[in-house]
Amino acid sequence: MVHVGQKPEARRNLLHGIETRSWGFPRWKPEYRSARPRFAVLATGVGPRVQLDEWSTKKITLYLFEVRENFYEAEAPHWPDEEDENAIKYPVRFGIEPLVVLHEVPLDEDGPLGLAASDAIRVSGTQQGVGMLVDMDPQPLLDLAGIPTNWSEHQTVALNRTPGFTAEQVKPPKPAKRRSSGAGFVSDPKKRKAIELHAEDMAVAHYEGEGWTVERLGKPYDLHCTRHGAERRVEVKGTTGAATSVDLTINEVEHARNPQNTVDLFVVSDIKVDMRTGDYTTSGGRVLHLYDWAPADEDLRPRSFEYRLPLA
Question: pTM here?
Answer without folding.
Answer: 0.84
